């Protein structure tokens, strides 16, 4: 089912099935009239302009001019819901023609149908369904492939959408306002990209030089490019695109470039016939635009490789021009313009990447924001105290998935539950079933404090030398030692100071006697921002995440085996001693077992950071992701408020 929203309300009768008149709908099929006067059944939908009503049925015979009619059977929708697609044969109604007017041969071929009408072909459209659709003889019903609402929308679009003329032959220059002479024979092109590490913001520029057959320079041009999914390849392709758009029609041109990747992708996406794989790649809008320009202008283009940073004076010339564009204050970026058949925009920014992945990134960003705003993460500190990018990386690792596939699903559940503070500790059970677990009961192992998640790691036990607290301290210090060793052996962005090891071990998150709040968060898998900020001085984000990944996984596994499983066995015997049976636990008496863990927490203390964190923060993450490149998760900002609503728009031409 296709559901497309629109800002326009023109010509629509069905608000849940809106197709803007600027869209191209490829699935519209007209009635087959190649076998006029012959039995040629095909499912169709008809719109009666006089009564503003629809008729669904099977076209039996078509009649050419001057009649321009079709004999169609009448089928009735089994439900008033337009989302369904089941129909039953009408057994007779006021609009039916007398049976005596219908050929007996046709009646024999249509045993399930009793009601027929003549309708004009101009208001008839083939119903989007499989060519051969089975009619149930016993119930005289049929199930078509597409819903009735979708078919209605297609028909309305077909009948009432304004006619859009194809592009004019002379309307080919939509990116460049330069018109080169017909004597041009070679284009030297080059792109330049300054990444964020060497520039305050990513900067892209391009340049090209046109020469004639006598090697005289006809014209040179350079400019900066709007920052959309910035990369070195993007600037190279745009240089090619702008140069091609500056050529006259019917040109035969040789393009010289020092980018081997550009030539490789050219042979794959432009020289060859169109392949859908191109739409899954970055810069597919640029490649589609290049194909369109070549087709519209009837260009013959060949690419050649020139050595980079060699003695080719023309290649060095365009290289210098492209680099100079970054610092030329007189330049202004060209407004983005593409000649691609399908363009997706996010808040007016063109999405020049795999559309399916981009939609997935949007949902991933919204999901992370929803998770981060849960009250359980904001009880005693700010939402920004957690490095959510590193935390997400460590919980999406391949080791966790491998553990699940290798029969360790209980351990996987344990990791998720300690992250969300959902382990069935005694305190949790007391909230869920106070009629079974007395709220006054304390930790069964020490009988000194309530058994919360944090108490699991700090429980002194009745025999201190065997306490979970001692085990916890040993495991945490082992984690610190392993991580420190990995960072000391990793390749840093800059040389480590002599005090690095001392500063690392002195971080608050390693303070375990007694455990600091940052330490308890790290135990749950929530990587403190203070830790990654310190490490970020010396290492890249990817290095930090990859180093923490495996040690944190192993740390959690040791907690699971050495503390949680032991506590679970002890707790099982303790419940038996208290007379708690499985029958009592499954009893419906008392509060619902699904009542929320934090339902009794006062709103005043449960959401200290929600007053400042924006619920639309994910939009700014995706917005920055498009402009600055990288990944959306590298642009987390929970306090950036927006003044406009997010808008995702698709346009066709």
From TrEMBL:
Gene3D superfamilies, per database record? Ribonuclease H-like superfamily/Ribonuclease H
The entry's protein name is RNase H type-1 domain-containing protein
Which GO molecular function terms does the record list?
nucleic acid binding; RNA-DNA hybrid ribonuclease activity
Domain RNase H type-1 residues, every copy = 181-327
Q: Which PROSITE patterns match?
A: RNASE_H_1 (PS50879)
Species, as recorded: Rhizophagus irregularis (strain DAOM 197198w)
Cross-referenced InterPro entries, in alphabetical order? RNaseH-like_sf (IPR012337), RNaseH_domain (IPR002156), RNaseH_sf (IPR036397)
